[in-house]
């Protein structure tokens, strides 16, 4: 049967096609089925048109979970590269009394449906932004405070540019609009092209080894090795093939031109000793984004949601 429309057939007594009906309860079901009744007379003489659509609920695709105050304004938390929604467990409880908390996993991470990954869609950060907008639309979220860590900060920016009426503000934790230095205009992203090429080659050749080496460096806080271990385990739990592709999308991206187009207020949280997004990058985001607030945290490393959740919460609450 074609994806968009099925043949007109006599309806079986199950009120639908058995092969489709049997899949309705499956958590990974891909199709929403609409049945249109045609003709008159007794049931055996009726005919149906089954329309199959390649659409998956975001609850399945992105493992969306919603907690907190159902009547409160929504806060949508987006994890960074190689992580999942569990990385927010020390932050979200502080907002559950006043806000509706929406968590999810990017496709390829956590409990997301890996089969939903599409090169045509997820080959750019714009595709991930569309995933965000799918979540927002499906759950009819409005006045959203989007909290994005690392690469998800730029994903949130793209989503808010496309549908600003849905968003009340954007919180960017360790953002970077471009990771590679640009010699043509003096932009400092923290990496040379050779650095990134070497990182991607290492990731391609031995993803698990790369994860074990890089995760503690990204986390920082060497005096607390358990944090690096957690990030390593998270990286290792990510689908390796999708992780390789997402790394290229992330580290080769350039969203500098998008920053001036953001029309909602934003908060930029910057850690010291962040090897992924150094302070000069956070300052660049602040200077090129209208109605933005820059806060330099005392926290070190790239993941203050894990290493310094109380300071992270306080900064967000003060801004809200």
From TrEMBL:
Question: What organism does the record attribute this protein to?
Answer: Actinoplanes italicus
Protein's UniProt name:
Sigma-B regulation protein RsbQ
Q: Which residues form the AB hydrolase-1 domain?
A: 76-315
Q: Which InterPro entries match?
A: AB_hydrolase_1 (IPR000073), AB_hydrolase_fold (IPR029058)
The domain of life is Bacteria
- So what family is this one in? Belongs to the AB hydrolase superfamily.
Which parts of this chain are annotated as the region Disordered? 1-22
| Biased segments, Basic and acidic residues type | 1-10
Pfam families, A to Z:
Abhydrolase_6
Q: Name one GO molecular function term.
A: catalytic activity
């Amino acid at each position: 049967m074609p994806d968009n429309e099925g043949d007109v057939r006599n309806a079986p007594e199950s009120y639908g096609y058995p092969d489709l009906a049997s899949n309705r309860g499956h958590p990974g079901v891909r199709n929403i089925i609409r049945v249109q009744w045609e003709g008159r007379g007794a049931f055996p003489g009726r005919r149906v048109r089954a329309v199959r659509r390649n659409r998956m609920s975001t609850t399945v695709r992105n493992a969306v979970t919603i907690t907190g105050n159902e009547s409160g304004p929504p806060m949508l938390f987006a994890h960074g590269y190689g992580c999942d929604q569990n990385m927010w467990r020390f932050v979200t409880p502080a907002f559950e009394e006043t806000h509706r908390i929406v968590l999810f996993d990017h496709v390829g991470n956590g409990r997301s449906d890996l089969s939903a990954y599409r090169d045509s869609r997820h080959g750019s950060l714009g595709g991930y932004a569309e995933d965000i907008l799918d979540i927002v639309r499906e759950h009819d979220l409005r006045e959203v405070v989007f909290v994005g860590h690392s690469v998800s900060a730029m994903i949130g920016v793209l989503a808010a540019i496309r549908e600003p009426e849905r968003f009340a503000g954007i919180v960017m934790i360790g953002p970077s609009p471009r990771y590679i230095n640009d010699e043509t205009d003096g932009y400092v992203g923290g990496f040379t092209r050779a650095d990134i090429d070497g990182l991607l080659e290492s990731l391609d050749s031995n993803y698990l080894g790369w994860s074990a080496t890089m995760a503690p460096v990204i986390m920082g806080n060497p005096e607390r090795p358990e944090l690096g271990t957690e990030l390593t385990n998270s990286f290792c739990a990510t689908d390796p093939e999708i992780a390789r592709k997402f790394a290229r999308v992330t580290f080769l991206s350039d969203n500098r031109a998008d920053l001036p187009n953001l029309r909602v207020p934003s908060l930029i949280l910057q850690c010291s000793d962040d090897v992924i997004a150094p302070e000069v990058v956070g300052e660049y985001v602040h200077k090129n984004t209208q109605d933005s607030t820059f806060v330099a945290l005392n926290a070190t490393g790239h993941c203050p949601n894990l290493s310094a959740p109380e300071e992270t919460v306080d900064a967000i609450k003060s801004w809200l």
